[in-house]
Amino acid sequence: MRIVLALLIMFPAIQARAASSTSDAPAVAVAPTTTSAPFALVPLTPKQINTASPFFTVDGKDPVILTNPPVQLEDLQILHLWPAQAPLQQGDNPAVDIPTLTVFLPPMGKASGAAMIVMPGGAYSHLSPREGLPTAQWLASNGITTFILKSRLGKKYHHPAEIDDAQRAIRYVRANAPAWGLDPRRVGIIGFSAGGHLASTAATHFDAGDPASSDPVERVSCRPDLHILLYPVVTLADGSNVHTNSRAWLLGDNPTPEVLTLLSNEKQVTKDTPPAFIVHSTGDTTVPVANSDQYVAALMRNNVPFVYIREPIGKHGFGLTDAWSGQAMAWLHVQRF
After folding, report:
1. pLDDT (mean) for 153-166
2. Checking phi first, is residue 122 left (phi over 0); if not, alpha (psi -120 to 50) or beta?
3. What confidence category does residue 10 fall into, taking pLDDT thresholds of 50, 70 and 90?
4. Cα Rg for the chain, rounded, in angstroms?
């Protein structure tokens, strides 16, 4: 039997605390370049998806990574999140050491002005292209300008590098949104499995930005305006429900009790956590559904609006399917995405 739990959207979506415009912002917004046939509409074979580059491109070419924010977004641009080295960066290998966003644009005339950042799963050891690419195409084809985050990963990188990358990605899109013809109050995130842990971390660990920063990106909020979680890793402290591989790749072999509590995101929900759409299969034996159950219970206690699809969809890692995507898109439309 299908179980869909929802705290109806009686509460207004809490708007992100974006910083006010500064002299660094362009005076005129430039809408993203769009075509009648963007990459979002290109049919991809499973082989193309599974062998995609770490930057989620399929043409096999060496990527050109833009160090500075472009004046105008273009399809499949790869954007460097920091103008120089990222915090804690330990090398210069673009595939390993440099966090990026890859751009996926909507078809011409369909852009809603909203943006979503995709955080694929992979146990914090790799990033799954079969969760990243189909999701980016689905969102972009429905009018949402989409970015896939290539974050740094274990075991070379441990916390806080991963959340640094996620928070910076949200700030980066929000800070540049006015110039790109996007709405800085409509920047959401979607995460799968360990990417769901990263997304739930971003949704429960955020700040309003540093207005005194010399970097305009750092002046704006890193709070997402909503979040979607698919079979997420949530708890790192509840022994029987922890996905131990994700925990080890993120934190190493001997994390402290304090950091385990800090990153068990069912313990970090507050009334300011953004609205959520959560999907978890009751048949998931890899990341138990209790991860989402505990997170949803915390959302309920804090009166955070959510939709929860909890049913026997299949095994862990089912990705983009009709079992949830139609309901999620309808929910995004209600949220003005």
Report:
1. 97
2. left
3. very low
4. 18
Residue whose structure tokens are 């949830």: 324
Q: d(Cα 35, Cα 283) in Å, to the nearest integer?
A: 41
CA 84 – CA 315 distance, rounded (Å): 41
**Paired strand residues for 47:** none
Q: Using the structure block, give the residue that is written with the tokens 């193309």.
A: 48
The per-residue pLDDT for range 169-221, each reduced to its tens digit, is 999 999 999 999 999 999 999 999 999 999 999 999 999 999 999 999 999 99
Give residue-wise pLDDT tens across range 264-318: 999 999 999 999 999 999 999 999 999 999 999 999 999 999 999 999 999 999 9
Check: CB of residue 201 under 8 Å from CB of residue 160.
no
Q: Are 131 and 196 in contact (CB under 8 A)?
A: no
CB pairs under 8 A, 24+ apart, for 134-138?
134/44, 134/49, 134/319, 134/320, 135/190, 135/192, 135/319, 135/320, 136/40, 136/56, 136/102, 136/104, 137/39, 137/40, 137/41, 137/42, 137/44, 137/104, 138/320, 138/325, 138/329
CA atoms within 13 A on the CB side of 291: 37
Predicted local distance difference test score (pLDDT) of residue 29: 60
Name the H helices within the chain.
Answer: 46-50, 129-141, 161-176, 194-204, 244-251, 257-262, 290-301, 325-334
Domains and their CATH numbers in the chain: 4-13+28-33+74-87+99-334 (3.40.50.1820)
According to DSSP, residue 89 is labeled -
